[in-house]
Amino acid sequence: MTKSKSVLLWIRLVLGIAGISSVLYPFSVKASNHTDVIESGLISTLDCVVTAYYEPLATQANFLQGSFAAEVAMDGDDTTASGTKVSLGTVAAPPEYPFGTIVEITGFGVGEVRDRGGAIKNNRFDIWLGRGDEGLARAANWGKRTTKCTVYLPGSEVPSAVKEKMGKYNLPSAVLPADFWLKKQSFGHKNLSLGSEGDDVREAQEILKSLGYQVVVDGDFNEDFEKEVIEFQIQKKIIADSTSGGAGTVGPRTWQALLAASSSNTKSNPVLIPTRSTVDHKIAIDLGYGAEGSEVSKLQGNLRLLGYFDNPTITDYFGPATQAAVIRFQLAEKVIDSDQDDRAGILDKKTRERLLAVLLGKNEPAPIPFTNLKKGSRGVEVKMLQEKLVKVGTYKGPLSEYFGEQTEKAVSDFQKKYTMNISIEEKGVFEQKTAIRLDQALGLDISLSPVFTRYIEQFSLIKGTLKKGI
C-alpha cells in the first residue's frame, strides 16, 4: 500500500470515529494525470482532453466515415458498455474510472461515466452529444478540447451545486459550417470534377458503368462523364437538376451514393416479393441492425409491400436501408414520436404487432403505384426485365441496368407477339398490363407477383377473370 493511501485511510478512520463521515470528501486535490486521481481516491481536478461522439442513424444525410455501418463501428449504437441507453450526460472514460463516476467538465456540464472506448485512455473523456445529423454536427463542432475536469469517484460526496448542474448542458451548435464537407475527404476518395484524372476517377467510372450508365472507363473526368454523374445525382436526389450547386462534382454525398449502389449491386440477389394475401407475414422475433436470416427477408418484403423499403433487392441482412425503412414505418404509424426515439429503427414487439395489423388490412395503407419502365430508366428492375425478355425470345442484347433502344424494341416485340391491346403511348413501355402478361407467358404464378397485387388493389380486377390480350 502506498504512503498516500495509508494516510487517506487514517483520515477516513478518524473522521468516522468522530461521527462526521458526511464530510469525508469536502475538498479537491489537483491531479496531474488519471493515475493520480485513482491513487488519491479523492475528488480530483485535472487537465483533460475531451472529445465527442454520437449515435448514427441510417436516415441521416452524411457520414464522417463514409457509410452508416462504418459510422456505427466508430461511434457505436444506442447501448453503452454499462448496459444503459446513451443520453446527454453519458461519458465514455478509461477503464480505470468505474461506472458511476461523476465528471464535471468545464465548458460542457456534469456527466456520468457509463461507457468505454478503445481509444479512450489516460486523461481523455468522450461525451455523447446526440443522434443523427444533429448529433454528428454537435460532435464535429465540439471537436477536441483540453479543459479542466473535476472527477468524483463512486462513494465521493458530490456537492449539491454540482448535482444541480446535472441535466443542464452547454451544447455546441447542431448546424455544421457551410464548407464543412468540402474540407473533408470523400470517405477515402478525392473530390472529383471536370478535368480530374486518376484512379479515383476510374473507380467512379467503373461503378457507374456497372450500374448501366454510358461511361468509358479511362480515368479522365471529361464532359461526357460529367453528364452521367449529373444524371446519377438527380436519380439519387442528391441534386434537383443540372443547375444545382455541386452538379457534376463527385463529393462526399455522391461518393456515398456510388459506394452504396455498388455494394447493393454486387452483394445482393433479387428475389420474388410475396404479396399480402399469400404469405404468413408474422415475424416472431425482434430484429435490429446487423441481424441476418429469413426473418429479415420477410421484414424487407413486408415493408416493400407497404412502400417503405425501396431498396431494389431483398436480402437476408438488416442493414442501413432496412433500418431506415423501419423508422419510416414507425413514424408513419406513430409507433415512435421521432427518429430520436430509443426504439427508432428496431423491430420490437410493438412495431411487429403494428406491422402485422397493417398487413392484414386492419388499417389498409394507400396503394403503392407501379413504376413504369421505359427508355431511359435505370436500375436492377431493368436487368430483371431483360432476363425475362431473353426467355421469351424478344431480347438479345447485353444484360444491364439501362433501358435503351434494344430493351424498348424487345418490349414492343413482346407486346406485338402476344397481341396486346395497348395505346401508342404504351408501345415499348413496360407498364402494369405488360408486366402481368410477361409473367403469364413465363408460366409464373401471378398471384405471387407484386405487380399483379398492386394492379388488382388499385383497379379492382379479380384474379382469374383477366381477359386475353390484357
From TrEMBL:
<dbReference type="InterPro" id="IPR002477">
    <property type="entry name" value="Peptidoglycan-bd-like"/>
</dbReference>
<feature type="domain" description="3D">
    <location>
        <begin position="91"/>
        <end position="152"/>
    </location>
</feature>
<dbReference type="GO" id="GO:0019867">
    <property type="term" value="C:outer membrane"/>
</dbReference>
<keyword id="KW-0812">Transmembrane</keyword>
<keyword id="KW-0732">Signal</keyword>
<feature type="transmembrane region" description="Helical">
    <location>
        <begin position="7"/>
        <end position="27"/>
    </location>
</feature>
<keyword id="KW-1133">Transmembrane helix</keyword>
<keyword id="KW-0472">Membrane</keyword>
<dbReference type="InterPro" id="IPR036366">
    <property type="entry name" value="PGBDSf"/>
</dbReference>
<dbReference type="InterPro" id="IPR059180">
    <property type="entry name" value="3D_YorM"/>
</dbReference>
<dbReference type="InterPro" id="IPR036365">
    <property type="entry name" value="PGBD-like_sf"/>
</dbReference>
<dbReference type="Pfam" id="PF01471">
    <property type="entry name" value="PG_binding_1"/>
</dbReference>
<dbReference type="InterPro" id="IPR051933">
    <property type="entry name" value="Resuscitation_pf_RpfB"/>
</dbReference>
<dbReference type="InterPro" id="IPR010611">
    <property type="entry name" value="3D_dom"/>
</dbReference>
<feature type="domain" description="Peptidoglycan binding-like">
    <location>
        <begin position="379"/>
        <end position="420"/>
    </location>
</feature>
<feature type="domain" description="Peptidoglycan binding-like">
    <location>
        <begin position="293"/>
        <end position="354"/>
    </location>
</feature>
<protein>
    <recommendedName>
        <fullName>Peptidoglycan binding-like domain-containing protein</fullName>
    </recommendedName>
</protein>
<dbReference type="GO" id="GO:0004553">
    <property type="term" value="F:hydrolase activity, hydrolyzing O-glycosyl compounds"/>
</dbReference>
<dbReference type="Pfam" id="PF06725">
    <property type="entry name" value="3D"/>
</dbReference>
<dbReference type="GO" id="GO:0009254">
    <property type="term" value="P:peptidoglycan turnover"/>
</dbReference>
<feature type="domain" description="Peptidoglycan binding-like">
    <location>
        <begin position="198"/>
        <end position="258"/>
    </location>
</feature>
